[in-house]
From TrEMBL:
Pfam families: LptD_N. One of its GO terms (cellular component) is outer membrane-bounded periplasmic space. Residues 25-135 form the Organic solvent tolerance-like N-terminal domain. Transmembrane segments: none annotated. It comes from Campylobacter showae CC57C. Residues 1-21 form the signal peptide. This is Cell envelope biogenesis protein YhbN. Gene3D superfamilies: Lipopolysaccharide (LPS) transport protein A like domain (2.60.450.10). InterPro entries: LPS_export_LptA (IPR052037), LptA (IPR014340), OstA-like_N (IPR005653). One of its GO terms (molecular function) is glycolipid transfer activity.
Length: 157
């Protein structure tokens, strides 16, 4: 029965979404759509794949515009991702992950972590924002913890 629900969730999202230049695949245990609110909610072992990018969480809500194009993805509960931005690989996690496709904006809210794999740079903060279009990063600390940035330095002797 679980496989049937996952298959139905995957099938329904493709009925709800228009055709894209790059295919988006969503797998989840449960799926709910409200066309009047332009949203689809996936829950239970959610995995969203678009090209090489992957988003995993316990729950993901996808918001759409009138043409049924996704405008925002909001992931919560064990939210993690791996994305490829400007030939670099990033792993991230947080209490809530938000991706807005139009401005190419990634936001990690609550207990945020971002790791650039190639350079082994790591950033921790309460809110981490990455603007893919401008190549800018903004990290804010919480009231209890400072922003933490970890990177490697080569000693030249």
């Amino acid at each position: 029965m679980d496989r049937a629900r996952k298959a139905i969730g995957t099938l329904l999202v493709f009925c709800f979404l228009p055709l894209f230049a790059e295919q988006v695949e969503v797998n989840a245990d449960n799926f709910f759509a409200d066309e009047s609110k332009f949203m689809g909610e996936f829950s239970g072992k959610v995995k969203i794949t678009k090209g090489k990018d992957v988003l995993m969480a316990d729950k993901v809500i996808i918001y759409f515009d009138a043409k049924k194009n996704p405008t925002k993805y909001v992931a919560s509960g064990n939210a993690k991702f791996r994305v490829f931005i400007k030939n670099k690989t990033y792993d991230g996690s947080g209490s809530e992950l938000v991706y807005e496709p139009a401005p190419n904006l990634y936001t990690i809210n609550g207990n945020g972590f971002l790791h650039e794999i190639e350079s082994d740079k790591k950033v921790y903060g309460e809110k981490i924002t990455v603007n893919q279009n401008s190549g800018t990063y903004n990290v804010n600390s919480g009231k209890k913890e400072p922003v933490k940035f970890i990177f490697q330095v080569e000693d030249k002797k």
